[in-house]
Amino acid sequence: MGALACVVVNPSKRGATPRLRAALAAELRAAGWERVDWAATTRQQHGALQATRAVEAGAGLVVAAGGDGTVRAVADGVARARGAGGTAELGIVPLGTANLAARGLGLPLRRWPALRLAAGTAGHRAAPIDLLEVSTDALEAAGSPSEPCLVVAGIGFDARLVAATRAGLKRHAGWGAYAIAAARTLGAPRLPMAIGLDGGASEEVTARCLLIANSGRLPAGIRLLPAARMDDGALDVAAIDVRHGLAGWASLARQVLPPSPARYSAPGRGLADARLSRGREAVVSLDEPAPLEIDGEILAPARRVRVRVEPGAVIVRVPRKG
After folding, report:
1. pTM of the entire structure?
2. Lower CB count within 10 Å: N or C terminus of the chain?
C-alpha cells in the first residue's frame, strides 16, 4: 500500500467538521496510510487540480469529502492522473444534499460508515466506473473544451430545478428543498430537440426534460433510470415529456415514485411518457439555448450538447460484494 493518502474536502459543507476530519485521519492511519495530506476546494478550484496534484505527489488514495460537485471534480482529477500513469483509488465521503454519486454506487450515506469504507478499515473493493465527458457550444465559445460528469447531465426542467433550489434551504430542508423548487419549476417549457446516438441518424422529439445519465438513483428510493449503471460503459438517455399541466405531472409521479422502479408510458401514450435509449455517445441539438446542469452544477445555456462515456476511467472504493 502507498504511504500517502490525500483528502480533498469542501469546507463549505456543514458536515466538514473538525470531528469528522479527525475521525477520517484516524481511520486512514489505521488502514496503514503513513501520511495524510489535506486540500480544500475553493470557488475557483473545485477539486480536480487538488486531486491531480495529490496523485502526482504519490498519493495512492484520494478521498473526496463533499457533495456531488466535489466528487465529480475529484473523480476527474484522479482520472486525468490515471491517464498519465497514476494508479490512485478514489474514496467518497458524501457530505452533500442529494449525494447522487454515492447512491448510484451503493455507498453508505451515514458519515461514519462512509469514512471507514473510504479509508479502507471497512470491507471494500476497488471497482472501475465510468466518467462522462460533456461538451457544448457555450463551453467551446468560452474556451473550455468540456466538463466531466459523474452522474447526470440534465437539460430543461432538470436544470431549472437545480437553479431554483436555494443553498440556504438545502442546508435546512435537505432533499426537501428540491421538492419545494420543483413546485416552482412545473411551468418549464417543452423543448423541441434532435437526439443522435453513436453517430446514427438523429431523432426529432419534444421533451420537458432530457437526462443523459451514468446513474438513475435519487433520494427517497426513486429509481428514475433503473437500467443505468456506473460501470457498464454506456450512458442512458431519457427524454421525458409531460402534457396537460398538473394532470401530466401527477401521471409522471405515479410512474416514477417508489416502491417500484420507474416504469414509463410509451411515447405518445398518456399524459406523461419517456423515450429511453442507450449508447456510448449522445449528441443533442435544440432550436434555442436551453438551461443545462451537470451533477448539480449549472452551466451556460446551450443549443448543442455532446456527451461521451469514458469506460472505467476511475477506480473507486465500493462495498465488498456479499
Report:
1. 0.92
2. C
